[in-house]
Amino acid sequence: MRELLRVPAGGRIDLGGYDTRAVRGGPDGLDAPGNKAAGLAATARMGERLAGLQERLWASSTAGDRRRVLLVLQGMDTSGKGGTVKHVIGLLNPAGCRIHAFKAPTKKERAHEFLWRVRRNLPLPGELGIFDRSHYEDVLVARVRELAPREEIEDRYGAINTFERSLTDDGVTVVKCFLHLSYDEQRDRLLKRLDNPDKHWKFSPGDIEDRALWPAYQEAYEIALARCSTGAAPWHVIPADRKWYRNWAVSRLLLETLEELDPQYPEGDFDVERARERLVKG
Amino acid sequence: MRELLRVPAGGRIDLGGYDTRAVRGGPDGLDAPGNKAAGLAATARMGERLAGLQERLWASSTAGDRRRVLLVLQGMDTSGKGGTVKHVIGLLNPAGCRIHAFKAPTKKERAHEFLWRVRRNLPLPGELGIFDRSHYEDVLVARVRELAPREEIEDRYGAINTFERSLTDDGVTVVKCFLHLSYDEQRDRLLKRLDNPDKHWKFSPGDIEDRALWPAYQEAYEIALARCSTGAAPWHVIPADRKWYRNWAVSRLLLETLEELDPQYPEGDFDVERARERLVKG
Fold this sequence. Notes:
The structure is a homodimer. The first copy, chain A, is an alpha/beta fold. In chain A, 48% of the residues lie in helices and 11% in strands. Chain A has helices at residues 2-5, 36-61, 81-87, 107-110, 116-119, 141-144, 150-169, 183-195, 205-212, 214-228, 243-261, 272-281; strands at residues 68-75, 97-101, 128-132, 172-180, 235-239. Chain A has a five-stranded parallel sheet with strand order 2-3-1-4-5, with helices on both faces. In chain A, helix 2 (36-61) packs parallel to helix 11 (243-261). The radius of gyration of chain A is 20 Å and the shape is globular. The termini of chain A are far apart.
């Protein structure tokens, strides 16, 4: 599954060649849910296994294991970054999740180099970190909107790769997901927001301005995904026009990642029989 | 419900008079679930309402509403602070929850006054903050284990009340829950941990030493609950021997709190028809 969605390291990619409505499954294609009902059920079923692995990861950290996972979510407006957090991360124990939504940098953040605010929000050992947007904004919106000189932006791809490599060296498994939405599906989702007054707070006229820059954003994503899909921290393209599939696919990526880490409950370093005796007597 | 579990301001309290297995419901007693199956179902049903109110609270903050909620969980070892976070906070959108588990203070934390680390972990406007242990440890374990001079501890109750009052003045609704466990139930839970090697990481022989100080801890709780149950930030005693009831009661307290706040989706400050036109054309 991970292999299937992974962006090959060192190549070029053409997002136009990726189907935003695709339903891709395991290598044999057998275990991808074929429809919404099956997808919702399969995602719910993964919840228990995910939560169990998450508990093991946390437990293991109490005995000195420094491993942790960082899920990076990127995508155009309405691609479902927030929905993924709600529906996928909602399957887990919130106490072990460290979620950060990156907004436009504050004045204080702008006074530091672009990775400064990222370093301050990393998961601790045993935790699952989730970035809703990330340091990639500094090569996406920053590139499209020309928020920094082009040479500086060019330098950032290498800085990101070095940074992510330092994370993986420190025990962080980085799982990067681009939620790949179609131009038409975005229009439908934005129109839906307009139709529902309870969703107006999620809408800003700026969303339409970003939409007008769609080709430039797609190009910026293609460059970022190609240059920063590394062996240490690969990018994955998640077809995101179907919410149920998006949630299933991200859950599945997390599950495969945690199963590969295979964290174990640590053994106690105390005398169990002696403890039992003291409790029964007390 | 809140009234029923609330510790009266300014009085003395005798925890021995509170039944740890009680099943208390609303003022008319009608809506308390009578058994585990009903309790689990009722808690699950509250999930959707809780999540809806949480979304409104968050949405409202995007329009400048500074209100937020801080849930403080205290209780003896195995009383279920972590379980409450998992099962109650797990009903909510994790993106809007800011959870902090307070451990024994680090060297850095000890170099500051006792509320310093608390101030650094408060919920932001629109968020639900959850403290698994809290500044109350500084008048609980600190009192029982004599970690500070008695006069200093005596001063802390007033400092806590002043601090919490400043929080409520700033839009924070503080909901404090003491998970009230019986001595016998704690023994059973600790023995269960010993029986399951996958739970040994949760056990430390120090738990038995704390258990030997049970009466001193109960007294420290009685003093803290009596002195710090204020009109601004009352304490609630949650019967905690039954996990399903504990989860139901805390969910119910949160639900009543959020319903009273009654946050509203903000209106959009843009021209909806104009936005629709631009989208349909684009």
